């Protein structure tokens, strides 16, 4: 048991207590962040004359050595250390001797862990944003290819009006675009450095917090030392945004599962993204979409868990906050995995355009357009609605669609119908006449696609990373 705080104790910690308290099994993920933060800290200490240049150089060399040795496998992170901070410090002292004992000058594990978590989450915000961008690229490409792939649009899962596949996918494009905007917002709000806040009340050493912050690419230091060690708002915001991503992916998965069913046959999921049944040889199941839908629950769980953990914690640091990590890590891994797999599934999915168009033709998706046709001929809308209602009833009784009726049959219901009705209610007309921005008509869709293309070309992630990050 390697602890940083034995001095005041006369007894060994109980073994179970030690295990219960330890976080090394999961915060070992912070190795990079912990070392980056320590390097920034000692570089600043040397600039302020708190450490000599020689001491700083020795410590930096020791720290980078630890990182290299863990990476090449010669140094193992083992459970004999309480947490990653103890692991790094103990190894540093072992490596460079007494100078290593100066690393923690003017620092507490409270501001240290606050920094590590921030650096880690900041990095993952960028990774998630990247995966979202890749999914958006896939969707936009599909949209460009399917501007005239007609399909039914639904409300209440009942066929409503015809749309195009481009239009339907465009709805998801907007959702994932908002998810990316959330990443950008979170990044901006969280990009302040807590290091230098000490345990809760700052330190008596003349630290230059502005300098430390700039070394790690932060916009500046956080402005209240108690808040700095007690704040996990950015984790909550991130988990909330991740939950929203999962909600979007889950809705999309649900649709893919429906579209892929034998009854719909709108799409066929590629063999590489489907699985079989152990007993029913004919089966090809949409397991990936189902798993994405299913995993949504655990990401929501992480959000509710951290909200609950934080709600009763008095200022400043309390050990409850160690609970911020495991679920956050799990949520990040889950979302990244789901985004990557979903993207792969979409890229390889086959769309049965003929089945979609046929489905759009059945189910009276052109009934609104038929009513609008009558309005165009001077019939008030409410009357037109009622006439088309009778027409639909007639069609159901005779098992025909509107466009399959003879003109004579149409005229029996209303003398206003003429031969131009057929063109007015064709699938193509129904879609192509919808040209307001945001509607499925080709001209409108093309403009939306052009705007979204431009949006995808902007890269907000190209930010100033700071000197220490460049050293890596
Ligand atoms: N493992 C701890 C955490 O994750 C690190 C901070 C420990 N600080 C302390 N005062 N015990 O929060």
Q: Can you write the helix and strand succession as a string? A: HHHHHHEEHEHEHHEHHEHHHHHHHH
Roughly what fraction of the amino acids lie in strands? under 5%
- List each distinct ligand once: arginine
Count of strand segments: 6
The largest sheet is: 2 strands, antiparallel
Give me the Rg, rounded. 30 Å
Structural category: mainly alpha
Q: Could you tell me the mean pLDDT?
A: 95
Large-scale geometry: elongated
Number of helices: 20
Straight-line distance between termini: 31 Å
Verbal overview:
This protein has 472 residues and is mainly α. The protein is 61% helix and 4% strand. The chain is built from 20 helices and six strands. A two-stranded antiparallel ribbon has the order 1-2. β3, α8 (209-215) and β4 form a beta-alpha-beta unit. The longest helix has 37 residues, at 109-145.
């Amino acid at each position: 048991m390697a602890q940083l705080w034995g001095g005041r104790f006369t007894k060994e910690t109980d073994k179970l207590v030690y295990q219960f308290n330890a976080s090394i099994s999961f915060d070992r993920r912070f190795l990079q962040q912990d070392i980056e933060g320590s390097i920034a800290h000692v570089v600043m200490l040397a600039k302020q004359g708190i450490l000599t240049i020689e001491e700083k150089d020795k410590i930096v060399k020791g720290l980078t050595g630890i990182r290299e040795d863990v990476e090449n496998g010669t140094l193992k992170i083992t459970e004999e250390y309480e947490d990653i901070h103890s692991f790094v410090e103990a190894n540093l002292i072992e490596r460079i001797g007494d100078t290593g004992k100066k690393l923690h000058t003017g620092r507490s594990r409270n501001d240290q862990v606050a920094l590590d978590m921030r650096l880690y989450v900041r990095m993952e915000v960028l990774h998630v944003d990247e995966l979202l961008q890749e999914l958006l690229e896939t969707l936009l490409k599909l949209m460009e290819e399917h501007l005239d792939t007609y399909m039914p649009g639904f409300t209440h899962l009942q066929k409503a009006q015809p749309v195009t596949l481009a239009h339907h996918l465009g709805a998801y494009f907007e959702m994932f675009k908002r998810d990316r905007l959330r990443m950008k917002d979170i990044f901006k709000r969280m990009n302040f450095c807590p290091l230098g806040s000490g345990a809760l009340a700052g330190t008596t050493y003349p630290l230059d917090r502005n300098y430390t912050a700039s070394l790690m690419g932060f916009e500046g230091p956080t402005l209240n030392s108690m808040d700095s060690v007690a704040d996990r708002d950015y984790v909550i915001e991130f988990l909330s945004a991740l939950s929203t991503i999962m909600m979007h992916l889950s809705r999309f998965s649900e649709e893919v599962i429906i579209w892929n069913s034998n009854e719909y046959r709108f799409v066929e999921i590629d063999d590489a993204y489907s699985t079989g049944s152990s007993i029913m040889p004919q089966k090809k199941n949409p397991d990936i979409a189902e798993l994405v839908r299913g995993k949504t629950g655990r990401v929501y769980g992480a959000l509710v868990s951290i909200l609950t953990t934080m709600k009763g914690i008095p200022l400043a640091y309390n050990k409850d906050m160690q609970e911020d990590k495991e679920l956050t890590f799990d949520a990040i891994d889950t979302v990244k995995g789901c985004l990557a797999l979903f993207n792969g599934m979409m890229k390889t999915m086959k769309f049965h355009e003929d089945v979609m168009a046929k489905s759009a033709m059945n189910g009276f998706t052109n009934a609104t357009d038929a009513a609008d046709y009558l309005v165009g001929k001077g019939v008030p809308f409410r009357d037109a609605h009622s006439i088309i209602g009778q027409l639909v009833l007639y069609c159901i009784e005779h098992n025909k669609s509107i466009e399959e009726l003879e003109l004579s049959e149409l005229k029996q219901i209303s003398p206003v119908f003429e031969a131009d009705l057929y063109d007015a209610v064709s699938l193509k007309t129904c879609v192509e006449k919808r040209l307001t921005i945001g509607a499925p008509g080709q001209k409108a869709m093309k403009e939306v696609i052009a705007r979204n293309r431009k949006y995808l070309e902007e890269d907000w992630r190209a930010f100033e990373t700071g000197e220490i990050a460049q050293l890596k």
